[in-house]
Amino acid sequence: MGTAFAIIDIPRTLADTAYGTLKRDILDFRLAPGDRFTETEIADRLQVSRTPVREALFRLEREGYLEVRQRNGWLVKPLDFNTLDHFYELRSVLEAAAVQALCVSASATGRQRALRPLADLWLVDESERSSDCERLADLDERFHIDLVAAAGNPEIARVHRAATERLRIVHRLAFTVPERIGKVYEEHAATLEAALAGDAPRAMALLHVHIQGSQAAAREITLHRLHAARGARAA
Q: What Gene Ontology terms describe what this protein does at the molecular function level (predicted)?
């Protein structure tokens, strides 16, 4: 009985491993928009059979990262800025709702408690700021996710997290520009100060400006820059 269950579990484990590896490859630009590959190529690289690879690829297709081509060919979906705009706008709405709820419903003490982890990261002296663009991209993503989570609505947090993940590929590329570092610290610090003071209109306005800035930066990203970032990461 135990052996039978072990056999059943093995393909699922291999498929999950393949899925995780391929998703990281896409998000870290090792598989860039427009890249084509086959199941056989992936199976050989991961040293597994094509069955778990195929399961992982179809899972990534359902999530919108890949397109299936003839026979066993696959394509990393090109960037669709209309779709990206939709996710930026969705994030803006959800984050505004979270900040509104936090400012209106929570006491000053409650806001301090909910936002303290973020304040410890972003309300810091300039000498304490991270200069690592990759780390800052991760911290910026966490800022938005944790800000929404602090409002205490699990459903909004779930939808927001999914939207944030769909933007990750262009979000990370934007942080290859060092000038982004100081600006992000300043914008997040101002938003947190407004939220801690219970000033919902100001916090919402600052968030909107920040997200619009990220959206505009994404529009400027070219396939050349995407490949350059992938090459630098692989070096």
A: DNA binding; DNA-binding transcription factor activity
